[in-house]
Amino acid sequence: DVKVTQSSRYLVKRTGEKVFLECVQDMDHENMFWYRQDPGLGLRLIYFSYDVKMKEKGDIPEGYSVSREKKERFSLILESASTNQTSMYLCASRSTGISYEQYFGPGTRLTVT
Amino acid sequence: GENVEQHPSTLSVQEGDSAVIKCTYSDSASNYFPWYKQELGKRPQLIIDIRSNVGEKKDQRIAVTLNKTAKHFSLHITETQPEDSAVYFCAAANSGYALNFGKGTSLLVTP
Description:
heterodimer; A: 113 residues; mainly beta; four-stranded antiparallel β-sheet; 0% helix; 53% strand; B: 111 residues; six-stranded mixed β-sheet; five-stranded antiparallel β-sheet; 11 strands
């Protein structure tokens, strides 16, 4: 059973803080993704990674960076948190193979005050 | 890039009725079209997907149809039940990499 976990379910940070969101998957998946989910806007892709140390920008990368030092772990970094980054952040992973299914983590509700 | 439009944004049906959600996409290179269901407070989960070499796929009460010429695909749920109440997202991608999601449809099934 695929398991994708995220470091926190809820997080409250202050404007200007550096924020780290961690995602870990246990299925040896090559591909990992970070989305943000906002009401009425659906899921928007921030960054994705198809291999260790590789990263690709998604649709809304501004204000974010990522790190993938190990295959199982993909981190999202908010260099200087702003109130407009208050959102639900979802991590996902999938293998490189016949199945294109993405498996999602439980999400991190981030509030920036 | 790919743009996915999803309609309606909300849908209310009575238990036992059918529900249809429609999506259009813009990139003719897209060849993978999944549907995800997200129950309140939970993570999105794949319920059905279709690839561009297939026109229709069924799984019990759920079916998806794809019209490549018109660039649209639809989710059909028959004999709806209260537990079908959730937000449904369509998505499109080229070979399954970066999914481009629609904005979601909130489905309410009333007993």
